[in-house]
Predict the structure.
Amino acid sequence: MKLHFRNRIALHYIVATAIVIAVVFVTIFLIVKETVYANLDHDLNFEINKHSEEIVVRNDSIYFYNKKELEEREHQEVQVNPVFIQLIDTTGTIFDKSPNLKDEELKISSLQPDGSHFNSRFSDKLIRQVQLPVKRNGVIKGYVIAGMSLDASLILLDKLKNTLLILFPIILFGLFFISSYLAHRSIKPIRSIITTTNRITQENLSERVELPAQKDELYELSAAINELLSRIEKTIEREREFTSDASHELRTPLSSLRGTLEVLVRKERSREEYEEKIQYSLSVIDMMSNIIQQLLTLARMDSASDLNKQKKILLPELLDQILERYTAEIKKKNLKIDLQFQPEIDTQVPEYYSNLIMDNIINNAIKYSGRDASIKIVLKEIDGHLVCMVKDHGIGIRKEDQEKLFNNFFRSDALNHKDIPGNGLGLSIVKKSADAINAKVEVESELNNGSIFSVYF
Ligand code: ADP
């Protein structure tokens, strides 16, 4: 059977409640039954003890000495809580009995110990009974038996039992509907989550689940779904950006490559010409793979594994590794690298993002410096913050371009340094990485005089 979630909650609640109610009802019934019997037994004890003192034994006869009083008292009445009294000898001969017994007689039970209470019956009437031996000189001469009708008590217990039995399913049904209604109300926000998430497609990814007013588990669930949607939206956005940037930026080098190759196959060329065109084609291919590589870095930046992002490193160590990677370029241009830092600096930085930042800035300093130039890298601590400055004496950047340096594909004054390869993505990567670790990048530059890139970690 397929049950709604709310009914399942209600059912579980009801099963637990049913057990508790059943235990409570049975306990109530047993306590009332015990109390009723205890009262009856108490009354019977009182009666039998009272009458035991009024017994006279003469020869083989046993009788009540104030019979008149006995007859006058409640034993006359059969209906209202009657007490039946009977005197019987050891052979079973009845010597005396209360008038309310009429033709009936109380049976002696040899199985019951003297003074104990038990149920018996006469003429379809259930009675509570107790018997005591009548002794003279240590010899049992007979028994006095007292009995009381159980009718009233049994009616009371029956009524109680029926009431509890009727109440049991009624209470459970009532509770089931109430708890099902309450469960329905409390899972209402889930309905809203389902409706909203069903509505969300690629086209309206910015839509979010409405947060419930109460800050409970459902609030957390809605917030978690919203966060998940934000991440998915960002990923799709990145994918869109990547495909549009890639197709846009690769179109020009691809058509240039195609043009070069078409010209080359049109007629036979000299070996030098072939070499020159092939070299050019190779450089275009390098450039394209560089663009793809950097676009991928940008697109994957957010999805790099958390473990990778958490790794830390000492900045001097990271700078050494980066400079090591550019040894060939530095040698080729005969650059002088001056790395200055206080050895006691032991602040660590996030390796993944710091590497992307420093690698691109140092690469630019090398790329945009002339032969035999010097590059100064200074590392110091200012107000508890680690600052790394990379100063070159290269071509510098025009004032009006300095603001746009961090935009995707922006190259300052590109036509004037056509021979320096680049695609305008390096500083975009720097900016995005710095944002990811709350670092700040500042640029000071003068055209033809050099630039200083300062990173505040
Ligand atoms: P690119 O691949 O073109 O170097 P970047 O995003 O790294 O792309 O840099 C963007 C532009 O900023 C460069 O094209 C260049 O004009 C300018 N630039 C960056 N760093 C320097 C530098 N150290 N010296 C001179 N110009 C620089």
